[in-house]
Design goal:
The protein has 302 residues and is of the alpha/beta class. It is 35% helix and 22% strand. The strands form 2 sheets. The protein has a 9-stranded mixed sheet with strand order 5-4-1-8-9-10-11-12-13, with helices on both faces. A 4-stranded mixed sheet has the order 3-2-6-7. Bound molecules: adenosine monophosphate. Adenosine monophosphate (AMP) binds next to strand 2, helix 1 and helix 8.
């Protein structure tokens, strides 16, 4: 089934303890759509400036991503600069330049309006709502956000959450959104805001999925080398939503499997800077990591 994403397409400048890159391909929608493209058909809504190289557009197109909703306008592309210390779980944002996103108010191509699965990747919550309002009858809507929007546009974000089925967010941001420390209390509070399912990403500690009646826990894959955590959250969301869209339905079993496919894509992505590790995967690469997750968590009948 078709999966639509709105979010940032960006130039990222990132420093980790293992190296540094300047103005490489990044953005929430870029990571998401690349990860999801291994599972399903993806349509992208975003904006780029005149400075965005054609080679990046060609890469997204080579992944089979529908780019009819990717507008190129006069001005500069969105830019984000961040830094990680040895505590790789949380990025410190040094600079956010919204640039062409400041004025972006897209009209969805007709073919996008029938999308059944929608992901509102990390971007201005007003833009998330604007895009969602143009989708005729979405079957499943999921969303991500970050402290930049929780602090800068809280009311708009709360409005967006009313129309969302699943919120996928990291632990620090979930705590900030709910204004609570304890994650069980955080989940209870966020579930009253709209999303009936909440996935809390905890970096190297994995992910927790809360619904009204259950909790599911997935570890992160214990990697020997993590180069760059940027995009881990969006790659997680891409694997998660891509798999659900491929299944075509959401039930207790496939939503748990989706958490593991999300963890699979995130664990692959962090092994290199930018999207480099996700550029040329085979289905076997993905399946091998998924099976490794299964072995990691299996404890019956030993
Ligand atoms: P994550 O998956 O959480 O590591 O997201 C990293 C991506 O989010 C980077 O590639 C950034 O370009 C993008 N990003 C950072 N800040 C923002 C923001 N305020 N709005 C939209 N995208 C952002």
């Amino acid at each position: 089934m078709s999966l639509l994403v709105v979010g940032s397409v960006a130039f990222d400048s990132v420093k980790t303890p293992f190296g540094q890159v300047d103005e490489v391909l990044g953005g929430s929608a870029t990571y998401f759509s690349t990860a999801a493209s291994y599972f399903t058909d993806v349509s992208l809504v975003a904006v780029i400036g005149e400075d965005f190289p054609e080679t990046h557009v060609e890469f997204l197109s080579s992944r089979g991503i529908d780019l009819e909703g990717l507008s190129r306008v006069p001005g500069r592309t969105f830019r984000w600069r961040g830094e990680y210390s040895y505590q790789l779980n949380e990025a410190k944002t040094l600079e956010t330049q919204l640039n062409v996103f400041q004025e972006f108010s897209p009209t969805l191509p007709a073919s996008y309006q029938d999308a059944e699965f929608v992901f509102l990747a990390n971007i201005d919550p007003d833009l998330q709502r604007d895009v969602l309002s143009q989708v005729k009858s979405p079957k499943l809507v999921a969303c991500d956000t970050m402290n930049f929007w929780i602090e800068g546009k809280r009311d708009a974000l709360i409005e967006t959450l009313k129309a969302v089925d699943i919120l996928i967010i990291n632990d620090g941001e979930a705590r900030e959104l709910a204004q609570e420390v304890n994650l069980v209390k955080v989940a209870k509070k966020i579930i009253t805001l709209g999303p009936k399912t909440l996935v809390i990403k905890q970096g190297e500690y994995g992910a927790l999925m809360f619904t009204q009646h259950s909790i599911f826990a997935a570890p992160a894959y214990p990697l020997e080398e993590v180069f760059d955590p940027t995009g881990a959250g969006d790659s997680f969301a891409g694997g998660f939503m891509g798999y659900l869209s491929k299944c075509g339905a959401v039930n207790d079993t496939n939503i748990r499997q989706a958490v593991i496919y999300g963890s699979t894509m995130a664990s692959i992505n962090v092994q290199a800077f930018s999207l480099d590790q996700m550029r040329n995967l085979t289905q076997k690469d993905i399946e091998n990591r998924y099976q490794a997750f299964k072995a990691l968590t299996f404890f019956d009948h030993y």
